[in-house]
Specification:
The complex is a heterodimer of chains A (121) and B (112).
Chain A (H helix, E strand, L loop, with lengths): L2 E5 L3 E2 L5 E8 L8 E6 L5 E7 L6 E3 L7 E6 L4 E6 L8 E7 L11 E2 L3 E5 L2
Parallel strand pairs in A: 2-11
Antiparallel strand pairs in A: 1-3, 3-8, 4-5, 4-9, 5-6, 7-8, 9-10, 9-11
Chain B lengths: L3 E4 L2 E4 L5 E7 L12 E6 L6 E5 L3 E2 L7 E6 L2 E6 L8 E7 L6 E2 L3 E5 L1
Parallel strand pairs in B: 2-11
Antiparallel strand pairs in B: 1-3, 3-8, 4-5, 4-9, 5-6, 7-8, 9-10, 9-11
Classes of the chains: A mainly beta (121), B mainly beta (112).
């Protein structure tokens, strides 16, 4: 059974940094692309970033480009999202999402439970 | 960016009756490989999203057959043949043909 366990969410001041982690199990992590999708309180879904199976290709929404960095450690079955220069509008529940294959993007068949990031002074 | 427009915003339905959600994209979602990458997700209250339909009309494993997807090009529909109480929630369409990946704004399904 696919399991995705996010962690690292916290209350952080504007301009601060945070690193989210997603521990994956139940599948061969190194053979699947992974993504982060966020949902601001009471709002809809917004794609944030995607990384292919090898980590060799990464993709970002314009709203986070240059501030966020997606990465993965296939030896630890873990996905990361390094978030710098945080803004109030980054406040959201961040979901870790498993893709359908190593190089297919946006299928989003499996979702974690999310970790909450709150940016406020 | 491809804008995904869903309607209606809110959909009150009677148990056992059909429901239909529309999703329109600002550009064709047909990819160069001939496939159309349009998904539908259900988000029940307090839960993570769950994919129901991928590539317009393919139902995910475990999804009841009362859910069906249809459409082509820029115009898509999610149909629920007979709404049940467990179908309450917000439904999102999403395209993964073009970067950046984009979601519709959501349609809230509630019981009358």
């Amino acid at each position: 059974e696919v399991q995705l366990l996010e962690s690292g969410g916290a209350l952080v001041q504007p301009g601060g940094s945070l690193r989210l982690s997603c521990a994956a199990s139940g599948f061969i992590f190194s053979t699947y692309a992974m993504s982060w999708v966020r949902q601001a309180p009471g709002r809809g879904l917004e794609w944030v970033s995607t990384i292919r199976d090898s980590g060799g290709s990464t993709f970002y929404a314009d709203s986070v480009k240059g501030r966020f960095t997606i990465s993965r450690d296939n030896s630890k079955n873990t996905l990361y999202l390094q978030m710098n220069s945080l803004r109030a509008e980054d406040t959201a529940l961040y979901y870790c999402v498993k893709e359908s294959s190593g190089t297919s993007y946006g299928g989003f068949p499996h979702w974690g439970q999310g970790t909450l990031v709150t940016v406020s002074s | 960016d491809v804008v995904m427009t869903q309607s209606p915003l809110s959909l009150p339905v009677t148990l056992g009756q059909p429901a239909s959600i529309s999703c329109r994209s600002s550009q064709s979602l047909v990819y160069s490989d001939g496939n159309t990458y349009l998904n539908w997700f259900q988000q029940r209250p307090g839960q993570s999203p769950r994919r129901l339909i991928y590539k317009v009309s393919n139902r995910d494993s475990g999804v009841p057959d009362r859910f069906s997807g249809s459409g082509s090009g820029t115009d898509f529909t999610l149909n629920i043949s007979r709404v049940e109480a467990e179908d309450v929630g917000v439904y999102y369409c999403m395209q993964n043909t073009h970067w950046p990946l984009t979601f519709g704004g959501g349609t809230k399904v509630e019981i009358k």
